[in-house]
Amino acid sequence: MWAVLILAAAGVFAEVSPDPGGTAGIVRGRVDIEAPPAVVWNVILDCGRARRMAPNVQSCKVLDRAADGSWDVREMVVAPPLVPKVRSVFRSFYEPMKRITFRCTAGDVKLCEGEWRLVPLPGGGTRVHYSNRASSPFPAIPAGLTREAMKSDMIRALKALRKECLASAKT
Question: Which of 6, 35, 158, 171 has the smallest C-beta neighbourhood within 10 Å, fewest atoms?
Answer without folding.
Answer: 171
